[in-house]
Prior knowledge:
With 434 residues, this protein is an alpha+beta fold. It folds into two domains: 38-184, Orthogonal Bundle (Annexin V, domain 1), CATH 1.10.220; 270-428, Tetratricopeptide repeat domain (Serine Threonine Protein Phosphatase 5, Tetratricopeptide repeat, Alpha Horseshoe), CATH 1.25.40. The two termini are 42 Å apart. The protein has helices spanning 75-95, 103-121, 125-132, 142-159, 168-181, 246-257, 264-268, 272-275, 287-307, 313-328, 336-351, 355-372, 378-393, 397-414, 420-428; strands at residues 8-13, 17-22, 31-36, 39-42, 62-63, 71-72, 182-186, 192-197, 205-206, 212-217, 220-225, 236-237. It is globular. It is built from 15 helices and twelve strands. It is 50% helix and 12% strand.
Amino acid sequence: MTGSIEGVERFDSPGRGRGLRVTRAFKVGELLFSCQAYSYVLSVKERGFYCECCFTRKEGLARCGKCRKACYCNVKCQKADWAMHKLECSAMTAFGENWCPSEMTRLVARILAKKKTQKERSASEKILLIGDMQSHVEDVDNDKREMHEGDVAALHRFYSKHLDLPDHKDLLTLFSQVACNGFTIEDDELSHMGTAVYPDVALINHSCLPSVIVTYNGTSADVRAVRDMKPGDEVLISYIDLLYPTDDRNNRLRESYYFTCDCQECKTRSKDKVKLKVRKRSEPIEPEVIDNMVRYARKIIREFRFLKKTKTPSELLEMCEQSLEEMGAVFDDSNVYMLHMMYQAMGVCLYMEDPVGAIRYGEKVVGSYSKLYPAHSLNVSSMYLKLGRLNMGLERNSVGISALKKAITIMEVTHGKNHFYLKELRKEAKLTKK
């Protein structure tokens, strides 16, 4: 680890390589450790809403006087971020609309700048950890390799003025490392805010039965227990969305992280049957019919993800409705593939500024989410937040406050009772004086 963390130690996890384990007991909701990002970057889409330096969301942020793009809380934040922002400031002005590096490219540029600064000061253990992160560069498929090649080209195009870039092979390795070990910083509703590298958190191995959860406080990552832990227990997080059945989860793990999970849930598949629940009929549905519908569901989910960028919102909503009708002939409403498309439909309704439609889909989803996700799930709390805020916006205050209270109950465990999200939520739910 980059430093000593009381109650947590690094060890060689059998069959997993490196890992972390606790050396004392931790209770549900207790903070194991908190760490600052080695390097991070705010999403371009969130510029103007969040401070580039500390990720504080507020109105009236001050813009950089040169590029007029980056925004800050105050002069202190602007000065603190200059070493990183200068990598982009003049380039954004020079390239104008042609300035288009990916978020991954922007993060890698900052990592390289940080490593250079630290090397000039002293040999830092954090630098070694960045180099020690898993890359799986030899396992990358053609599509990902092509994407990394494009990111390397963008790095040369947009950042060569400020950076002495490593050779091509080393850059590909670094991009692969960041792809495997980077973390998406999300807000209370799980909306994407930015991307970061946390070397200490990257040491934590995956399980579909996680013992901890990672949440964010500005640019810091907090690791909290979501089940009671005893000395010697390994610290485990989930790298993926746990809603889906075993085969889907492991397909995602192989595609993104190049391993298959062998946790107890993956061995027993104990939740697969309820996750793939079919409609009750007087005559049982043939297994072949169910298998065909599972294949259809996976295909439509892939197509929807691909077509999101090209179809209009109304076309996407129609696609959701048609697939739900098709799957609904076989699947129960609580089936995870039905829930997936309902969730997508809710998102489209939100984009179309149709709160009534969003609530209609959201209410169908949240009840099943509460049963299918683990306890203290951010996916569940974020749904209650969305529904609470939507209902409050429609002046359905009692329904909205009830939903917000359910979100608060979960987030007091996942984020800690004193997190600023909770302070704001209590005001929204009218639990404290403004």
